[in-house]
Design goal:
2 domains
């Protein structure tokens, strides 16, 4: 959930609580059940916000480009549908049986989680890896070290990788990142070409300030830097109820 959406949701809840409290202090008998019937307005606002964010403008002036996030677009449509269905049902506009919707949602999400994990393991050729299970791993920093193609998994834990002082070999180096109910943060040098492939299920991914996520999100970005070197970093990132952030060193 991005900052704007969080602020909108929290603001709506605080506003509603304030209005109800004020009316109660003024002696107005507020039918709470009737007020609660309008809770689907919140997912409607969230869905509209996500729909706008699915079309992002990046850059300035002549370098300005519009990125489309199909994952955020699908998430927006789903959340909007939830708001419309429940609001219409609460106001007696129509009757919809939502059991089928929820019975289908969770198995589909489990299938997508399995496909995401299997696909990442099949395509990644690694020489090693680290796993943070309910704990934390920190690598890198100011001390020089050699970066190799490897996998990192954070399961209910956290991993921090700082590549600013890493010795990166010529050719392509692959980092395969998986965050399951955890978080992974990678700091990369500014002069390093990067091919980024990220996906999120009930989570979020952030590549150099470009966010994606929600119920389902996916993105591929080629961050090309003409450094005169054959070095290139390929990042395959996936998150399930977690977060992955790739940021440049300051």
């Amino acid at each position: 959930m991005n900052v704007l959406m969080s602020r909108v949701v929290i603001g709506l809840l605080i506003l509603l609580a304030g209005v109800l409290l004020l009316l109660g202090n003024l002696g107005v008998d507020v039918p709470v059940d009737n007020v609660w019937a309008f809770w689907p307005v919140i997912p409607l606002v969230i869905g509209l916000n996500w729909l706008v964010l699915a079309f992002r403008t990046v850059g300035a002036d002549e370098d300005r480009r519009v990125y489309f996030s199909w994952g955020q677009f699908v998430t927006a449509l789903f959340v909007l549908a939830i708001g419309i269905i429940y609001l219409g049902r609460n106001l007696d506009f129509f009757e919809v049986d939502t059991r089928l919707l929820w019975n289908m949602l969770w198995p589909v999400l489990l299938i997508l989680v399995g496909i995401s994990l299997l696909r990442g393991r099949r395509t990644a050729s690694r020489s090693g890896g680290r796993t943070a299970f309910m704990g934390g791993i920190t690598m890198g920093g100011e001390t020089p070290w050699t970066l190799e193609s490897s996998s990192y998994t954070a399961f209910m834990g956290g991993i921090e990788l700082d590549l600013t002082a890493a010795e990166i070999p010529e050719g392509e180096t692959l980092l395969d990142l998986t965050a399951i109910m955890g978080g992974i943060e990678v700091t990369v040098p500014k002069d390093l070409p990067i091919v980024y492939e990220g996906s999120a299920i009930l989570g979020g991914v952030d590549f150099l300030g470009q966010e994606d996520g929600g119920i389902l999100g996916s993105r591929r970005i080629e961050h090309q830097i003409h450094s005169g070197s054959d070095k290139r970093l390929r990042i395959q990132a996936r998150t399930i109820m977690g977060g992955v952030e790739i940021k440049e060193a300051k």
